[in-house]
TrEMBL record:
This is Putative FMN hydrolase. One of its GO terms (molecular function) is hydrolase activity. The keyword Thylakoid does not apply. It comes from Photobacterium aphoticum. It holds the Pfam family Hydrolase. InterPro entries: HAD-like_hydrolase, HAD-like_sf, HAD_sf. The lineage of its organism: Bacteria, Pseudomonadati, Pseudomonadota, Gammaproteobacteria, Vibrionales. GO terms for biological process: riboflavin biosynthetic process. PANTHER family: 5-AMINO-6-(5-PHOSPHO-D-RIBITYLAMINO)URACIL PHOSPHATASE YIGB, N-ACYLNEURAMINATE-9-PHOSPHATASE.
Length: 142
């Protein structure tokens, strides 16, 4: 199955269950499982192989070299104001060395619906004991 077919399958799976778009890890598991079943895997074997595949993707996903400048900036910011991270992704801030700068990390799927839905922002504001108001600064990095 080529890349285009995997992408088409990914989108088809999300059409059947749109909530998967809010949890990229579960979404990946589901379309890997279904794709493997299309290759003739039994449900049990497809689930097992999809789990292995997702674990591999997560391991590779967390092989990130964060530039020293990023650490310096986050350290300076965290010394002045509490920081929280809000992500639609599945990077592990602990594994990539950024956890010390954030007082909390809110992840789509695990903690609520993906951005731009408000749930993760509301949780972050509550964590910081803030009311979401225009003075709150949200920095979105893509």
């Amino acid at each position: 199955m080529g890349t285009a077919r995997w992408q088409a399958l990914k989108q088809a799976v999300a059409q059947v269950d749109p909530m998967l778009r809010h949890d990229v890890t579960q979404w990946r598991f589901e379309y890997l499982k279904i794709g493997l079943m299309q290759f003739g895997y039994s449900l049990a074997k497809a689930e097992q192989a999809a789990q292995v595949g997702v674990a591999h993707v997560l391991a590779v996903r967390n092989q990130v070299d964060v530039p020293a400048e990023t650490h310096r900036v986050l350290q300076a910011l965290a010394a002045r104001v509490p920081l929280v991270a809000i992500t639609n992704g599945n990077v592990d801030v602990e594994k990539i060395g950024l956890a010390p700068y954030f007082s909390a990390v809110f992840m789509a799927g695990r903690d609520g619906m993906a951005k731009p839905e408000p749930a993760l922002f509301v949780q972050a504001a509550r964590h910081l004991a803030l009311l979401p108001r225009p003075f709150c600064m949200w920095v979105i990095i893509r």
